[in-house]
Design goal:
Helix content is 49%, strand content 14%. It is an alpha+beta fold.
């Protein structure tokens, strides 16, 4: 991991996750992001949630990771960080896990080619 980059581990087979990656790449000016396809790199299976490692070594997952990433390129980072307030974080985590469970069925997935 580059000491100055945010490392983002996502499900590269999921269409929703790939769409979010492209949006984050466009929004994150001045904040280098290094994306890793967790589906291709995982030995235990496909990642169930977005994982982020900040430049300072802090690790986040799921909804909190998504909120922090969206806040990086935002004109209103405080708005996004407000979603980390415990009651909103609780609700956001529940919604995130519900969507994550159904993401491949709802948004589709890419077929993995086996060499």
């Amino acid at each position: 991991m580059n000491g100055k980059a945010w490392t983002v581990i996502y499900d590269g087979q999921c269409h929703l996750c790939t769409w979010a990656r492209h949006r984050l790449e466009r929004r994150s000016q001045g904040h280098p992001l290094c994306f890793v396809d967790g589906a291709a790199a995982a030995h235990e299976g496909i990642p169930q949630e977005l994982q982020v490692a900040a430049p300072d070594g802090t690790r986040l997952g799921g909804f909190a990771a998504l909120v922090v990433l969206w806040s990086l390129g935002s004109r209103w980072p405080r708005f996004w960080r407000m979603l980390l307030w415990p009651p909103l974080l609780f609700l956001g985590n529940r919604l995130y896990r519900w969507v994550a469970r159904h993401r491949r069925r709802w948004f589709g997935q890419q077929e993995r080619l086996v060499p």
